[in-house]
Write a structure and sequence with these properties.
This protein has helices at 27-42, 46-58, 66-82, 86-94, 101-117, 121-132, 138-158, 162-176, 181-193, 197-203, 211-223, 229-240, 247-263, 267-279, 295-313, 320-330, 335-348, 352-367, 372-381, 394-406, 410-417, 429-442, 446-459, 465-480, 484-494, 501-517, 521-533, 542-557, 561-574, 578-602. With 603 residues, it is mainly α. Helix 2 (46-58) packs antiparallel against helix 3 (66-82). The radius of gyration is 33 Å and the shape is flat. The two termini are 46 Å apart.
Length: 603
């Protein structure tokens, strides 16, 4: 950490605020400002863009400048959408009062879509029902009505209220007699969810060349038993190989393969397909309610396949080494087989040592699989077989911590870490405990992080320079999350273990920073001064001058204005650089004003 001698003004990019009377607010100027803010949002500065819109809207009189206000509000909602700030969007629209019907209906539609993305189907339905039965302008309302009724259907699907979704769909198709491909696909999904597969076969018989239509038709044939599971599986795999098959279609076809393989008792194909489905896709989800797969299904598939392999090879349950040897032999050419064998020992191994070996083997194979990290999280954190985190094998928990950190899921990593007390084999204990403390701090468990760091200080009598630097970085993390009490105590505790004079000076400075953040300005001043004068320094070297400047600032905040004046004057007497002298003179002028204000008040 470094501290500049003085703080100089920073140049900040901002959106110029130009005010025009409502009657002359030119459309091209409004358009230009909106385009500029849109560009800011597209470049990632969403909060800055929204703040700029706030500043534009705050100066507008909505009654007289409604059109301009609405233009900014429309852009605001679009930025919420592009930034995926769904909860903020729906709350903003919920607070709308009286607005023109065309804008109001559009905005409420954005709110409904946000709620559907947030999986809040019931709340979306309440809003839709209010819109459908509202007394707004009938002409505009009728334009939106079909879209609202479609959203009602989707809200039921999200809430897994399948029979209500079917009734809503039937009502919609009776009202509009719509029969385009998108409508037929939605009807097909709803019918499949309601176990009316035969109707889907008839509905989509002429749509089999449509990518999604063909997938739903295959699924309907499978579930209606019109076609053998093995044939459906083969057909789904062929469709995947088609040049026209999109990523979304391939993902859904893996789900068809998984269900087909389950029905035909094809263990390796079931495992392979379930792994693809449960590992998920970064941007794609399976249609709500259409499939029903879980982590436990995959565990069961592993065990069933392993038992089948063991029966053929005449392995004995309890002879763990036989199963482990077979897994090691299979893992290069037949990784699915190897994972199944490792899973068998992981669950049914006769002792802790073999179960740990199986866990490590399973883990290594998962590392080699695409999206294996996501699959690991599903298998161990979403399974009924591991109801408590402590029941997950230790090597797996270590790995899940790393996965959670790589995905910025700090709270999850912190929760997992609370169950791990010792470093994994082959990992330096000091580094592990330090990392553990840091995860606690960043995960909102500052007290646990503080205790872990204190234990490190107690356990280690001496530190290398590198170890000290790493330790202090975690204390800085405590300061960053505003846990200054813990940070101060740890700085204080580490001081006796430090022989470097320069580092001593720095730590007093950082201790002062924490007291400053706690608004204990007098204590902060003493510590900054100690940093400036430590080990016989006169406090006029670059570091000392920086610390002295902070002392003066703290004295002023503590209302010791005469002392602050003396410190600033001392610095001015030894400072040659013009810009720094200007800053000091400005501070002295502020003190003069404060003293005079106090004198006037006292009189």
């Amino acid at each position: 950490m470094c501290y500049p001698f003085f703080v100089f003004p920073l140049f900040v990019f901002f959106i110029p605020l130009v005010l025009f009377p409502s009657y002359s607010f030119a459309a091209d100027i409004l358009s230009g400002n909106i385009q500029e803010i849109r560009t800011i949002a597209k470049n990632g500065a969403v909060s800055l863009a929204l703040q700029s819109i706030d500043s534009q809207q705050e100066v507008l009189d909505i009654k007289n400048d409604l059109r301009t206000w609405l233009a900014w509000e429309r852009e605001r909602l679009n930025i919420y959408k592009s930034g995926q700030r769904w909860d903020i969007l729906q709350q903003r629209v919920a607070d709308y009062d009286e607005l023109p019907d065309d804008f109001y209906f559009w905005a409420k539609q954005q709110q409904v879509d946000a709620l559907l993305i947030l999986k809040q189907g019931q709340q979306a339905r309440q809003i839709l029902q209010g819109l459908i039965w509202s007394e707004k302008e009938i002409k505009i309302q009728k334009q939106w009505l079909p879209l609202w009724q479609q959203r009602v259907i989707k809200s039921y699907l999200i809430d897994n209220e399948t029979s209500d979704a079917l009734l809503a769909a039937q009502r919609y198709y009776q009202d509009y007699r719509s029969n385009n491909i998108e409508d037929r696909l939605l009807r097909a999904r709803i019918l499949l969810i309601n176990k009316r597969e035969e109707e889907v076969v008839e509905l989509l018989r002429k749509d089999t060349k449509h990518p999604e239509g063909g997938m739903l038709y295959l699924l309907a044939q499978l579930r209606s038993k019109e076609r053998p599971p093995r044939k459906v599986l083969q057909s789904a795999l062929r469709q995947m190989r088609g040049k026209w098959a999109s990523e979304k279609l391939k993902y859904m076809l893996w789900a068809v393969v998984a269900e087909s393989a389950q029905r035909s008792n094809d263990h390796p194909s079931t495992i392979n397909a379930l792994e693809f489905v449960l590992a998920g896709h970064k941007n794609i989800e399976l249609p709500a309610g259409l499939f029903n797969f879980s982590a436990d299904m995959l565990w069961d598939a592993y065990i069933n396949y392993a038992l089948s392999l063991g029966n053929r090879a005449q392995f004995l349950i309890g002879n763990d080494q036989q199963w482990l040897n077979a897994a090691v032999k299979a893992q290069k050419k037949y990784p699915v087989k190897a994972r199944a064998l490792y899973a068998m020992v992981l669950f049914k191994g006769q002792n802790n040592e073999t179960r740990l070996r199986a866990a490590k083997g399973f883990l290594n194979l998962m590392h080699k699989r695409k999206r294996g990290a996501v699959l690991m999280m599903k298998l161990f954190l979403k399974s009924g077989y591991f109801k408590k985190v402590k029941s997950i094998p230790a090597p797996i928990r270590y790995d899940l911590v790393n996965i959670a950190l790589s995905r910025s899921r700090i709270e999850l990593a912190s929760n997992l870490m609370t169950t791990i007390k010792t470093a994994p084999a082959g990992v330096d204990s000091y580094q592990w405990q330090l990392r553990r403390a840091r995860i606690f701090v960043l995960g909102g468990k500052a007290e646990k992080g503080n205790l872990a760091l204190k234990k490190l200080l107690e356990k280690n009598k001496t530190f290398t320079a590198k170890q000290l630097d790493q330790f202090l970085q975690v204390v800085f993390d405590l300061q960053t999350v505003k846990e200054h009490k813990f940070a101060y105590e740890l700085f204080q505790a580490v001081l006796p273990k430090i022989t470097d004079i320069k580092l001593h000076r720095e730590i007093y400075y950082w201790m002062a920073d924490s007291r400053k953040a706690q608004q204990d300005y007098a204590a902060a001043a003493r510590l900054y001064l100690r940093s400036a004068m430590y080990a016989g320094n006169n406090g006029l070297d670059p570091w000392g001058q920086t610390a002295r400047y902070q002392v003066a600032e703290m004295l002023a905040k503590a209302d010791f204005l005469q002392d602050a004046h003396a410190l600033y004057q001392q610095l001015l007497d030894v400072t040659k650089e013009p810009a720094r002298r200007a800053v000091l003179k400005h501070e002295l002028q502020k003190l003069w004003l404060l003293k005079n204000k106090n004198n006037i008040t006292e009189q």
